[in-house]
Amino acid sequence: MEYDSPMKINFSKKIRFIYDLYYDGFVNMRVGKTLWILIFMKLFILFVIIKWLFFPDVMQENFKTDKARSAYILQQLTQESK
Amino acid sequence: MEHSALLVDWSRAQFALTALYHWLFVPLTLGLTFIVAIMETIYVKTGDEKWKTITKYWMGLLAINFAIGLATGIIMEFEFGTNWSNYSWIVGDIFGAPLAIEGLMAFFMESTFFAVMFFGWNKVSKKMHLTSTWLVAIGSNLSALWILLANGWMQHPVGMYFNPDTARNEMQDFSAIFFNPNGVSKFLHTISSGYVLASLFVIGISAWYLLKKRDLQFARRSMLVAASFGLITSLFMLTTGDEAAHQVALTQPMKLAAMEGLYRGEDRAGIVAIGLLDTTKEIGDEVEPFVFSFEIPGALSFLGYHNLNAFVPGLDDLVYGNKKHNIMSVKEKMVEGKKAITALGEYKQYKKAGDMPHAMAALKLFEANEKYMGYGYLKDPKDAVPSVALSFYSFHTMVGLGTWFILLFILVLYFTMTNEMHNKKWLLYASLFTLPFGYVAQEAGWITAEVGRQPWAIQDMLPVGMATSNVATTSVMITFWLFAILFTGLLIAEVKIMLKQIKIGPEGE
After folding, report:
1. How far is C-alpha B93 from the geometric centre of its chain's CA atoms?
2. By residue range, what is the domain housing residue A65?
3. Does A40 map to a domain?
4. Candidates A5, A31, A34, A63, partner chain B, best to mutate (most B CBs within 10 A)
5. Within 13 A of B469's CA, how many CA atoms are on the CB side?
6. Which of A6, B153, B302, B386 has the most CB atoms at less than 10 Å from its CB?
7. Residues of A with CB below 8 A from B85's CB?
């Protein structure tokens, strides 16, 4: 069977080709459907529950500017010498 | 300021847990992508549809591993921002740039070439599909390059300047970071270990089919590719391991001494092939380190310095110093480190007060002692020594299993080529039961690399106690158990889905 190279077809056909590639791919999946459910569950747990509840970016949340962040870290690094 | 030992230990345990689980998924992807690409190349070259079936089958298992492992590494980035915020700030763009490249590369590769590889069988030409498969293999390995270069930098920091005004390391020489021998050898050794694991995976599952007397041709062909690939890459792994050990000897001698349980330095030092450590042994005492051991004379000198007669410093030499071999003691380094920390504090104060002459003098003193800054945070010279038992046993587990894998690949390749493999039940069982040990070797290698470099988050610069954030220990404990449950669930899901697909077999494709 001969295939048109996606590189050689025009823009609208290219978009159609990419759409069909993903659409048909997802529709015809068997094990893949279970895997996608797992992926979405995992991403939900990771980004919505765990990240949101337990993993704030400490430096971003506690300090407004890079200057304040630097000052804090320098204070942490030099406190030991006192 | 150094945080409580409990917080540091829980933060470390959490990072170790996530990294260990993440590392269950990654190496198989690194290697299986190449094995699949080789199989598909044979299909395209020969036009034999059986090879297409074989390729699609292993590609299916690759997809399961990839999907379950996807984003497990992102948790470590959460941890950098929350539990290791001091560290994240101090490493600055040295770590940020490689991680960003890794993220972008992974995203674009996965959303484009992966899609063509899995969905494009009847949509694009054979050559284009094959190109996509190879690009997935190369891309996923290049993705690992950046993270391992960042890790290599932590083990041997080069190409940067510590800015005393911002408390960040700034990249000065990208090529020094990119070609950091520690990072390069780590990358090559890690990816080659992934190739070995993937070969063991294909051989182990194929052995199961042969034992069940089903899909025989499929299993034999799969074994032939995997054993050939495994043998070549395991020999490559051997050479990259040698280079990795050489780099450890040059830049992390304490790690090498711990890996070998070497307390007193020796010329012509031997490698302990098999040994049982005496748990009562302490740094600096007269107790013999091993209850029993079998040693290969000169091998450690050769491994570490490529010279059979070279002196290899032991833990005692590194902790207490050795004038004859010009080795500074940890105590002396701690004095220098404290000078650097004091000078940094004075620089900050003088600069704030506008006293620039004194600030510059303090900066000069800081720069003169900066090399040992991290030692200034240690409380006791013995704190510079990693866990000898964990380093020794994990290193020897990795090496012992690696040696067995090479032997297994030779045997499997030989008997597959002579068409006798299906009759060698002992070898089929050995192949099947070696598969979990492939994972054990992976984790042991990771433990050797990461436990061996303790107490440093950044070698000689920042101990883990200074790298952690001031967060609630209970929060770290809760998330530790959350991750343990989540990852165990994912692992069970992976094994269940994989086993189901294996039972269905290639004809189910």
Report:
1. 21
2. 11-81
3. yes
4. A31
5. 23
6. B153
7. 57-59
CB atoms within 10 A of CB B102: 20
Q: What is the pLDDT of residues B230-239, one digit of tens each?
A: 999 999 999 9
How many whole angstroms separate alpha carbon B275 and alpha carbon B291? 7
- Residue holding tokens 């791919």? A25
Q: Which tokens hold the place of B324?
A: 């004859």
> What is the percentage of chain B residues whose pLDDT exceeds 70?
98
**A with B: how many residue pairs have Cβ under 8 Å apart?**
131
- Name the pTM for this structure: 0.90
For residues B492 and B489, give the distance between their C-alpha atoms in angstroms, rounded to a whole number. Answer: 5
Dist. CA B147–CA B408, nearest whole Å:
31
Flag if B344 and A74 touch (Cβ within 8 Å): yes
Every domain of chain B and the residues it spans: 5-252+387-508, 264-314
How far, in Å, CA of B438 to CA of B32, rounded?
A: 14
Nearest CA in chain B to A66: B166
Instruction: Determine how β-strand B462-463 pairs with β-strand B456-458.
Output: antiparallel
What does each C-alpha distance from B13 to A10, A36, B158 come to in angstroms? 54, 30, 27
Helix (H) or strand (E) holding B360: helix B356-369
Distance from CA of A12 to the nearest CA of B (A): 17
Question: Which helix H or strand E contains B22, and what residues bound it?
Answer: helix B5-46
**pLDDT of B177 over the 80 cut:** yes
Specify if A3 maps to a domain.
no
Mean per-residue pLDDT, B441-459? 95
| Partner-chain residue, chosen from A3, A17, A38, that has the shortest CB–CB distance to B125 | A3
Structure tokens at A41: 């569950």
Give the integer Cα–Cα distance in Å for B276 and B449: 21
Q: How far apart are CA B104 and CA B116, in angstroms?
A: 18
Q: Cα separation of B464 and B179, whole Å? A: 26
Residue A17 confidence (pLDDT)? 78
Quote the minimal CA–CA distance from A11 to chain B in Å: 17
Tokens of B74: 């992102």
Are the beta carbons of B82 and A56 separated by less than 8 Å? yes
Picking from A54, A62, A65 by the largest number of B CB atoms within 10 A of its own CB, the best residue to mutate is A54
ipTM of the complex: 0.80
Q: With bands split at pLDDT 50, 70 and 90, how would you rate the model's confidence at B3?
A: low
pLDDT of A26-46, one tens digit each?
Answer: 777 677 788 888 888 888 888
